[in-house]
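FAQ
Q: What does a multi-component entry look like?
A: The components come first, one per line:
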Amino acid sequence: MTEINNKRYFLYKYTPIFLLFTSILNEIDFNLQFKYFSFNFAYILIFYYSLKRDGGIGYILIFIAGLFNDVINGLPMGISSLSYLLLSAAAAYLRNITLRPNLIKDWIFFLFTILILNFITYSYLILFFNYEINYFNQIKNITGTFLSYFVFSYIFKFYNDFILGKFN
Amino acid sequence: MEPSRDDFVIAIRSVFLKTGNKQKFSLLSLILFSIIFLILSNFNFKIINFNRAIIKEIIYFSSFVVNVPENIIKNSFSKVSNHFYYYEDYLMTQNQLQELRSKDLEKKIITYENVELKKLIDDYFIEDQQAYAKVLIDKESPFLRSIVINKGSRNGVKAGMAVYDDIYLVGKVVEVNFLTSRVLLISDINSKVPITIQPLNVQGIMSGLEKASGQLQYINKEELISNNNQKLIVVTSGIGGIFRSGIPIGEIEFMNISNKKKLIVNFYRDFSQLKYVRIASHTKENINIDQSNKKIFQKNNNKISVINNQAEDIKLLKQQKIINNEIQIKLQAENINLKKILIQTQDQLRKSSKKVIENKDKNKNLEFLELNLIYGHKCRKTLFRSNLFKVNTDEYRACVLRKGLIKRN
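Then the predicted structure of the entire assembly, as C-alpha cells:
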C-alpha cells in the first residue's frame, strides 16, 4: 500500500510540473493549426494548480518555465516568468479569499486575470521592444484559453479525483 | 470597511510574502527578479545573454527527450499509414500483374497462332544468321544516307541482309568487305522497301525522304487521307523476300503543304544516333509434307469437319432447348391463370348454390305464409279446439302445409 501511495504522491506532485515543462519545451502552445482556435495551455495549468493547491506547482519552477518559454519563443527574458507569476499570484489570492469554491466564479476571475496579464505583457512588448502584435490572433488565443479552462478544469478534476484520489 | 481592508491586506500579504518548506523564495521576490531580468534584457546585458545561451543548451537537450514520445507516436502513425498505403499499392500491383500476365499469355497465344498461320501459308521466316555490329563513321559514301559497320564477310555478313536497331528496321547491307560492310539506311532516297500500312492493309513502296522520314510510293493516298483519324503504322510487307514481313518502320503523319495533304513516314528510330545494330538474314522454315503427313492432314480435316457438324447440331439442339424452355414457361403461366379462373368459378358456383338454397327456403316460407292465411285457423289451438297445435311449432307448420288436419276415413 505504501508503495502505491508513494507512486500516487509522485504523480500528484510531478504531473503538473511535467505537463508544464512538456507543453513549453514541446512548443505545444496548443496552436493546433486551427484557423480560428488556439489556447495557452500553460496559463490554464498554472492558474488551475495555483488555485487548487497551496503553493501550486512551485513558484521557482514557474519562474524557470517562464524563462524557458521566453527563450523558445524569442521573447525578452523574464516577460513570461512575470506573467506566469502574476497569474499564480492572482490564483493564490482567489484561493485565500474564497470560502466556497465555484467553477463559474473561478472561470470569470481567470478571464479577468488573463486579460490584465496580456494587457501588461503586450504593452511592455510594444512600448519597450517595438513588437508587432497580431491582435486578431491574441483575441483568438485569449478566447480559446478562457473557453478551454472550463474543459480542462473538469479534466484535471477528474484526474485528481479518480486517478490520484487520496491526496486531494 | 475597516475589517474588509484588513482581510484584503492579509490575503495579499499571504500571496506575495509567504514562504515555506516547499517555497524558498516568496512570490514577490521572484516577480522582482523577473522584472530585473526584463530590465536587463532591455539593455542587452551580458549576463542575460549568457543565461539565454545556457537555457538554450538545456532546451536543446531536454526538448530532444521531451519530443521522444511525440516522435514515437508520429513515426508509428506514419509507419501504420505507410503500411496501409503499401498494402493498397500491393493489391493494385497484384491486380496489374495478373492483368499483365493474362495479357502476356494472350500475346503468346496470338504469336503462336500467328506463327502457325504463317506456316500454313508458307510465309514463316526464321533468323538463320545474326550478328551484332558497331557503327563506324561514314564520310565517303556514294549514297546519301548509309553507315559502315565493323562486321564483314569474315563474320558471315552477306549483301542483302537486313539491319535492325532493336526490333526496328534500319536498312540493308549493300556492300560487304572482309572486315566491314556498308548498310544502306531506309532514309536514303535509293532505298525502296516494300511496306504494308496497318490496319488498312494497304501495300506500297517506301523510299527515304529526310533524315527521320520517308515517302510513300505507288499508293492510293486518298484512301489513307480519308482514314486520317486512325493511327497508321508502317511495317514491311515481305514482298520481294529481302525483308521478312511485319518489321516495324514508323508511323504515318499527315501534313498540309500548300493546301495539299501529304503523307510522310516518321521513323521510329533516329538513324543519326545509331551505335550498335543487329544484322540478320531470314530463311523460310522448311515444312516437308510427305504422303503420311498428307493422310494425317486429311484425317484431321475429316475429324474437324465431323466436329464442326456436331458443333452445329449441338448449337441447333441448344436453340431448340431454349425454345422449349420458353414454351414451358408460357405453358406454366397459362396453367397458373387457368387455375385462378377455376378457383373463381368454383367460388361463384358455391355462392349460386347457396342462393338457390336460400331461395328455396324463401319459397317454402312464402308458401307456408300463404297457406297459413288460408288454413291457419284449421290448425291453431283454441279454447274449444284443444286437439289442434300451438302456433310456431313444427306440428302446426306441418298441419298448415297439409292444409288442415288429415281427415280419417
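Q: Is there any commentary attached?
A: Sometimes. For this entry: Helices of chain A lie at 2-25, 41-52, 59-73, 79-97, 103-129, 135-164.
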